[in-house]
Amino acid sequence: MKKTLLFISLTAVLGLSACVGVQKDDSAMQTADQKMLTAYNWTLERVTMPAGGERPETLGQQVRPFDLSFMDNRLAVSGLCNSMSGSYQIAQDKIQVQPMMGTKMMCADEAVMQSENYVGQVLPTVQQWQLQGVDMADPAQAHPVLTLSFADGARWQFEGTPTPETLYGQEGTTAFLEVSDQLQTCGAQNEQCYKVRSVKYNEQGIQTEVGDWFLLDRDQLQGFTPEAGYQTIIRTRQFVEKTTQGKDRPVYIHDMTVESKQL
Fold first, then answer.
1. Distance of alpha carbon 127 from alpha carbon 149, whole angstroms
2. Is the separation of the CB atoms in 223 and 176 below 8 Å?
3. Quick check: 97 pLDDT over 60?
4. By three-state DSSP, how is residue 3 classified?
5. How far is Cα 93 from Cα 71, in angstroms, rounded to an integer?
C-alpha cells in the first residue's frame, strides 16, 4: 500500500516546541535512549515545515517515505533507490550526522531519485533528536516516535518498528537456505508452505553440506518471495520464536541472495 506523508506548518501545531531543546541531563536515561534508537527501524511518517518554508506540495515531490536505522554509530537510509549511510554522534539532545555516502545506481522513477538526493543533502543538517513512547520494560510492544529537528526549523517524525533482535529478544544467527520455487500444501487448513533445505559453507565459501528438504510456514521466512522457475540460495538471520504452546519455532529473516539459478 502506498504511503502518504502528512505535511504541516509549525504555525498550525501547538505545543510542538516542547519536543525540542529538552536536555537529557540524566546520563543513564541518555544511554537508555540511545540504546532504544538502535532497537527499531524508523519509517518517516510526517514532515513539519516552519512558517514561510517551502510549500507542502513542493516538498511532497522531494520527501518520499523511507526508513532509517541506527547501528554501530552509523545512520542508514533505505527504501528509496540507493542505500545511503553516514556516521553520527549524539550528545544529550543534539545529533550530528556526517555527509551521506551511498551507491549511485539510477532509479527508474525520477521522483524517487529526487527525493533521495534531497534526503541525502538535508540529513547532515539535523541538529536535535527526541524519542517519545519508549517502553524500556517491553520494547517489543512499544510504539515509539522519533523526531529529528533541522537547522531550517523543519521536523521529520518517524514511527519505530522493532528490529528482529528487539522483537525476539535475542541476537540472530546466520543460516543459509536453499528455497524451492514451488510452494507445497501443508497443515490441516491446506495452507501453502515454503520448501527449503539448509546449506552450509566452509571458511573459504565453498559449499560443504546440503540438508534434507523441510517445510516452513509462510511467516517463518520473512523478506523473501521465491520466483517461479528459479532455485535460490539465501543468507538469513535465524531467530527462535516461542509459540503460545511454549515450543521453539525458527524464524528466518532474509539478509542477502547468494545464488539464483534458472531451472
1. 6
2. no
3. yes
4. coil
5. 18
Contacts 24+ apart (CB under 8 A), 20-26: 20/93, 20/128, 20/130, 20/147, 20/149, 20/155, 21/93, 21/128, 22/93, 22/130, 23/92, 23/93, 24/92, 24/93, 25/92
The enclosing H or E element of 164 equals: helix 164-168
| 66 within 8 A of 119, measured Cβ to Cβ | yes
CB within 8 Å of 226: residues ≥ 6 apart: 179, 180, 181, 182, 183, 194, 232
- At 123, is the secondary structure helix, strand, or coil? helix
* pLDDT above 80 for 251: yes
The confidence score (pLDDT) of residue 238 equals 97
User: Model pTM?
Assistant: 0.76
In whole angstroms, give the CA distance from residue 10 to residue 52: 10
- Domains and their CATH numbers in the chain: 6-163 (2.40.128.270), 170-262 (no CATH)
